[in-house]
# Entry
Amino acid sequence: MSYAKYMPDLTGDDAAAVNSLRSAVMRLSRRLKHQPLVSDGGRGGRVDESLSPTEMSVLGTLARCGSATPGELARKEHVQPPSMTRIVALLEAKSLVRLEPHPEDRRQKVVTQTERAEAMLEESRRKRNAWLADLAGQLDDDEWATLRAAAPVLEKLAHL
# Structure
């Protein structure tokens, strides 16, 4: 489904809402990626500077969905299979994933995250959740209730 097919139909308040949502999600995403972390003295940056946002996203997908073939990961991450092959090779070189034989198709491999990756993701989530909770603490009760109600819808949009 292409959004271009539906965008011309949006007028007035709907078009303004889509524009506002896009802008806010992008701004908040940038802030979450680069927010200062307590452990780095407030300089800003990711939990592990050696990982790209794409590599962190792949690890998050593996944590959420479990082991997968590189092709399945490419579809879930909306990248081309050769790109995912390169990403998986980088993660394997960093001992964050391991490749195992596919149980039914000997031509394929299954990508599984390591305990090191799980610990890294948990630390990243903990720090980002704390930062976001502090930010949300500046909302009034009605705004917080609205945001809580919107969270499942935003999660659905993120995975469409």
Residues 38-47 have pLDDT under 50 and may be disordered. The two ends are 10 Å apart (CA to CA). Helices lie at 12-34, 53-65, 70-77, 81-93, 115-136, 141-158.
